[in-house]
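Q: I'm teaching a short session on how sequence maps to structure, and I want students to see two examples side by side rather than one. Could you give me a first protein with its sequence written out and its structure tokens following it? Keep the formatting plain so it prints cleanly on a handout.
A: Of course. Example one:
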Amino acid sequence: MSGLPPAVKLCLLVFVFAVFGGTALAAVGADKRFFITPVFSYSPETGPMGGITALLGLPLGGRHAGDALRFQTNVLYSSNEHALAELTFDIPADTRGLRIVGGFGYRRSPFDFYGVGNDAAGPPQGVINESAFLDILARAALTRKLVAGFGFRFTSADIYSQEPGSFSGEGLDGGEGGDTAGIGYIVSWDSRDSPFFPRRGAYLQTLAFIHAQALGSDFDFTRMVVDARAFIPLFESHTVGFQLYGAFSGGTPPFYELPALGGQHRMRGFYEGRYRDEQYMTLQAEYRLPLFWRFGAALFAGAGDVAGSLGEFRFAELKYSYGAGLRFLVNREQRIPLRLDYAAGRSSVGEDGTGVYLTLYEAF
């Protein structure tokens, strides 16, 4: 391992620890109403990040028998001074499948801001987004595969420099932060055989939110997201997965709410937010195969870009990403994988990037 970058060495060591220790922790807490466990992740944006997750399930009786109130607390901190403290909830509202889900908390997110547009050249400016947030969604299962919901989201953000003089928000919408408040809908259709490690089936989700001053927002803008996925089984246990993802904005969103290319889920290999603009589209594919015991592997590739409007997308300006990874099923029954990925990103101007990612769950 002497020739490997420090980030790769660290993630490999944690991956090995999780293989031997994480499985035991999951087994001990699998049938308990209350479960607390340490968590660890790594990405180029956060660096090493660790903390605890606590889960509480309260079984209900009467007409809600067989269901439960579910609460989860996450407290995380990273070497790059990212911080998260949140409480999420899942509350049955009636016997016909209506549920109230959401969460609230505090988030501190330092990030490098390169500018807006698909040709943003930087140099990066150090920014900190410190915010309190609240999300509430009332959703109902219309059929076994179709779920629809109506929700409200609120965020109050402060934006400031990581170092004095490293960032100026002058001329940027949201350059000093502000409040965003919006209402909207979410509709999803899901035929996958597993939400965590699908081998077959499809998933389609669309959401749209309107943010307006009448709701308490400092910014008037819209956001629409389309997320389409398909999984095709090959041989006995191999799978090819595809994802088409688009995020589209209108109005005057704050710059930190603009769709951002990169990160641990899409266009891996690019720093999340290296490119950001009002419109974002990406397509990725992943080939997943078993190795032995609970171990598996994956090969993936993707292409995408950002633009100021739909008419400004250019095939010649697409960004590309590709990579490979290891998988380990920490929970065999629910098929929850620990994921270790190494990815590279390439742009049309010859800019290269790489990223190492260690986290639970598949990228899509």
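Q: Perfect. Now a second example for contrast.
A: Example two:
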Amino acid sequence: MKVAIQGEMGSNSHMATVAMLGNLKGLQIIACTVSAEVMGKVVAGDVDGAVLPIENSLHGSVAEHYDLLLEQPVRIAGESLLRIRHNVIVSPGVKLNEIRRVMSHPVALSQCRRFLAAHPEFEVVPFYDTAGSVKHVMAEGLKDVAGLAPELAASWYGAEVLIPGVEDHAENFTRFHLVLRDGVDSQAFGTVGEPNKMSVAFAIEHRPGTLVAALERLARAGVDLTKIESRPVPGSPWEYVFYVDARFDGPKTAEAALASLREHCRMVKVLGQYRAA
């Protein structure tokens, strides 16, 4: 079973994949540089699925992934939550007073502002990936550089956690989606339980009150709206596609909500129905 992720091995996406699918025999994780490459491999059948982050409780949504879910013939088949911890990781034996530079993904750096502010002697350098910073430190044999990354990155690349948990907020979670190509059976991935959550994209006419009317239809159908996000429509300035997540108590409720939306909206795409994390 091949599953693609965006980022290096040892990243949070790697950890989320193991947490979600680690019981699958022969699981092979394929690290990709960018999210479009991940989705391309899913659509082409080069991998069986992908695990992608969709939202962080502090940083917000991953907008690019909403766009890819809408554009590509894929669906969300599962959901998980991962507690995010950022650790100062160094080459074995390096001490805190030897560090001159700290590297990590810009989001990770922004979530460790208090720690970095307490160490003005550090040069802070944005890097393409959290785990990638540790991979770079070890590949280059750097003794004065630290990476901010998950604990898994330390064990994966033979590095050492110098200071654990330097994030500003303990309540830091990322929501991940298991993404499959249309037609692929989700049972092969061990997904269990009846779906009770759906993600839907819809577009409405650009007239006063149309969004309110769409949301009222969802409410009357009895679904619980848990998230709404808007994304611009390329080539149509000031027009938007709306993405919603909604909980429901049974398939009939979900079907009624979708039927009501389709009567009102010029476009509706079900991005997936799955068991909520």
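Q: What should students look for in example two?
A: Point them to this: Residues 87-163 form a domain with the D-Maltodextrin-Binding Protein; domain 2 fold (CATH 3.40.190.10). Also worth mentioning: The chain has nine helices and 15 strands.
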